[in-house]
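new request in #modeling-help
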Amino acid sequence: MSVTRPTVCGMANDVLLSASGLTKRFGDFTAVDGVGFAVRKGESFGFLGPNGAGKSSTMRMIGAVSPVTAGELRIFGQDPATNGPQIRARLGVVPQHDQLDQELTVEENMWVYGRYFGLSRAQVRERAVELLEFAQLTERAKDRVEPLSGGMKRRLTIARALISTPEMLLLDEPTTGLDPQARHLLWDRLFRLKRQGVTLILTTHYMDEAEQLCDRLVVMDHGRIVAEGSPRALIRQHSTREVLELRFDVDDHAEYGAKLAGIGDRVEVLPDRLLVYTEDGDTAAAEVHDRGVQPLSSLVRRSTLEDVFLHLTGRTLVD
Amino acid sequence: MSTDVFTARGGHGPRPPLATRERVGAVTGYMLLVYRRTLRGTIISTFLSPLFFLLAMGIGLGSLIDERTGGVGGVPYLQFVVPAIVAMQTMWLAMFEATYPVMDYIRWSKLYDSMLATPLRVRDVMVGHIGSIAGRLVLATSVFMLVAALFGGFATWGALWCLPIAVLTGLAFTVPIFGFTATQQNEDGFNILFRLIATPLMLFSGTFFPIDQLPVWMQPLAWVTPLWHGVESARMVALGTVDPPWLALHTGVLLMFVLVGWVLCERALTKRLVT
Ligand SMILES: Nc1ncnc2c1ncn2[C@@H]1O[C@H](COP(=O)(O)OP(=O)(O)OP(=O)(O)O)[C@@H](O)[C@H]1O
Ligand SMILES: [Mg+2]
């Protein structure tokens, strides 16, 4: 039997997280400037943006550790200002920088953290075994944390965040600084969690990560949301199907911008290359050739969220 | 606690809240692991250095003083100085514990942030950490007192009261300094604290000689520092010369440092961690 609860702000009752006009100021500086979003149970939702966009500040408010300056925020339908501990009891948090006790062992870090959630000693031991298996750290369980690789520490932080069986996992740049193999391993673990029904909230400045992991995302810049949608919808809406990337043997690529005008839908000039947005990259490449322009290199690729970001803000995401 | 509560805490939906005892206990449980890991270093730092004081001051200097003057007011110098060294070594440990490790948890390892991402609150973290420091002070002071007793440093069984007095003296330093640390951006301030505050305190709080040997203008300085009150109380109980109103005054001042320090500390720590 299902229980129907009244809907909040006209949204469906499986909304786990909602914000409107959410603002965070540090002194005079506004880090998060009136953002709004809603995330449903089981969704994976991303905040994509460059350094300083306000992603971590938003995540810390969602984590009920950073007080909201203005606006409304509800997590599990509760107000973090009054129900912080109750909210945090149901969250798993992976902060941007690992906060592990480097001197303790891997399993000790797990046990200690589980106790903060009021789990019994037997419970934390049992969960630690399962989760270290999940994070592929079983062999290292009795080792000190300090000498572990960055990827292992990241996996440990994620395993630790899962010890209380959270309903929502907050991941602040889960794979920044990891090598490709370590990233893929982490993505795989996050997929599994998603399949188990855990709601994932993550920030990233990697396009491929956002495309891989997020059902839906918002693009943030200077504390504001500049676009929202599924990765595919955002690309469709703000970019073209394909992109032709051209590099020339010049210091200033702008001089070629004019020569290519009219090819494709639009041409974007970057310091080190030109991007021609078009439905058909090969045809565009042929047109470039017909105009007698000789690039050093030319490459046709699919449009990505990077292009969306560039179009929306005029800047690249990772500089 | 019933198994049902634990099961519910590991499941979905609203979770049963933690009792204060559980929240604080989780923090002290962590600190216990930390202390166990650093046990060897602890023994060396909290035990050997006061032992050197005992040997140099109590026995070396003491035999000279006793020979010339017959002790301090008729008391052998060793028995005069040992209660003071007990209070003083507790002060050093108490100050250390409230500076570098606290800065580490606030700023370097940010382990306080990881605790505050859980159902714990700033007060739980503070009670748990200061409680653990108190436990550590009890342990270190007991061991040192035992050794001092073996050297004949105590005259009466009343000296056992030196333990709670020394720990209270320690807390009168730990709690306000904990708050001071919460306002610091780096460890520079600690140098000032140890060199410009702790060292003069150690020398001029009636530890090695009664403060009436000091110039008159310096004496009031001793009255406002916790160490002098700790030293005076410890000496009274150890020598069996308790003067109840004075003892009440001394311990009252120490309690004031703890209580006022507590309010300031909680405010500073909240301001620092909840941003
Ligand atoms: N505690 C603080 N006090 C003052 N300013 C802060 C504080 N925390 C963040 N800021 C500022 O707020 C802005 C947004 O920071 P935030 O960490 O939220 O960005 P971000 O999107 O997570 O960036 P990054 O990709 O670098 O992690 C930055 O300009 C930062 O300097
Ligand atoms: Mg960040």
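bot summary: The pocket of adenosine-5'-triphosphate (ligand 1) is lined by residues A 26, 29, 31, 49, 51-57, 96, 205; B 275 (CB under 6 Å).
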